[in-house]
Amino acid sequence: MIKQDRKTIGKTNVISVYFDAEFFFERGLHSFQRYDFPKALKYFRKSVDLDPHHSKYLVHLAAVYTELGNYEESNRLLTFIVNSIDSCFTDCYYYMANNYAHLGNFDQAERYALLYIQESHDGIYVEEAEELLDFICFELDREPRELDQENQLIVQHEKARIALEQGKFVEATRLLKEMVEEHPHFLAARNNLALSYYYLGKYDEAMGVIEEILERDQANLHALCNLAVFLYHKEKQEEAKQLLAGLKKVQPFHPEHQYKLATTLGILGEDQRAFELFSSLSKRGLMEDSSLYHYMAVASYNIGREAKALEYWTKLKQLNPSCEIAEYYLNILEDKELIQTTERLPYHYQLPFDVQLKKMDWFVNGRIPKNLMQDPLIRSSLLWSLRYGDRDTKLQVLQSFELLADEEVEEALRQFILEKEEEDYIKKVAIFVLRQIGAKTPYTANLCGHLIEIDQQTIEERFPHWMENWQKVSNCLRKYMEGQYDLLEHQEAQTIWSSFLEQIYPDLPQIRKAEGWAAAIEYYMLVRKKKKVSKIEIAERYDISVQTLSKNLDLLKQAFS
Predict the structure, then answer these.
(1) Alpha-carbon span 88 to 100, nearest angstrom
(2) How far is residue 384's CA from residue 222's CA, in Å, rounded to a whole number?
(3) Measured distance CA(260)–CA(148) in Å, rounded
(4) For residue 371, what are the domain limits?
(5) Which Pfam families match (predicted)?
(6) How far is CA 474 from CA 440, 453, 519, in A?
(7) How many domains in the chain?
(8) Contacts for 510 with CB less than 8 Å, ≥ 6 apart
(9) What number of other Cβ atoms are within 10 A of residue 109's Cβ?
(10) 8 Å CB contact between 542 and 518
């Protein structure tokens, strides 16, 4: 072995090579052209991970899924492209038509083939789309349809439904309201509008839409299922039980209705009946949707049939080798200690939110990176968890919302702070986030059991606007703590300052130097959190003397003793 001179160790020049999304795309394209689809899948997925909103990478990933027979995943990506990235990428409609044809869903295949021809009169696939339509009409033994108003309405409804799935509840609400106004008898849009209101926390509006549907069709199964979920989450147990008793007796014929009823009953704890309905779907040969394998597995597990659960998750893993959901639950079944403490699994075709938070080094400096938060699954999980998560989860979600400063988040936060049942502290953190993302005042919040309006004068923890020196301390805290603490610690420091002023009122101190008080508050907060810190270190950072810090710290301690 050649020995390296010790003096040269650590001095060699190592040049790190950065592999970007385009590098992996080119490798994937090479494998795709050689018909090595598993390897192409690996490379295309890597390029999408590095650049998740590039249509070229996404459409090639969709193409690989098609070649591997995973048509549902392919269509999910294609729908995401035309609805969220590039509405002019109309070739996606033709690809979707082919996928639906492979799945045997000729009505949907016809719809998207017609849509492609309408949107791309001179498109490169027009001839192929017409041949596909001829084949579909031969299979269905009828004349071809036109893309009439009904079909256009369905396509518009599909866009709204996708927005709903992606957690874009404000956008979905806008689209669905327009559809309901223009087509009042289109009850599917009304049902999704009710869900959209519900996810935004507008419970009364959601219930109002459900009542309108049931007035028009008292046996509308989607409306009854949605109503049962709404009642359950609002803890109206008696009403929910009465409705559930009726739903358990329903024997739907249409697969879509059967699917809706099964998932609803599963969510509400009626696992045995859910299992029966899912089993019926599988016997009818309707297992093309990979999520159905997951629901079958969950229902099996929840009624104590672990061997069946193992069978269905294994099938899901075989159908979609990259499915993290199947892998996660298969690992649960292998962990004997964990399985003994896991009584019941949730009916959500996604990883549990706490598991998602721990994956992929999501948290960077206490926050989820913005590129990850744009993922539809993560985004909808965050918005859902703000409503129905536990206390710690809600605080984590709020902390991450600083990076999602858009209309959806602002609307969700404004609705959240109106909730009577929600803890005041968490609502105050939400108000703090609204301020951080630049949401315009006033904010209307339900605090201490009363509706109050928070305007620009009261936003700084109820500081009077004219007391500029008090305000300077608050601003100073934000300036010196920026980049060193997370959102909750920022909020805690501001709360200490406002609580101190409330405690000593009307004997308020003179503020000669804001930095002296800000330093004392930061130090006091760290001591309360039992974190090691020296007065010298804090004083130097704020450019004050240790004596000034100690004097103000003593006043803080006296007020809170």
Answers:
(1) 21
(2) 20
(3) 27
(4) 354-454
(5) TPR_19 (PF14559)
(6) 19, 21, 11
(7) 2
(8) 469
(9) 23
(10) yes
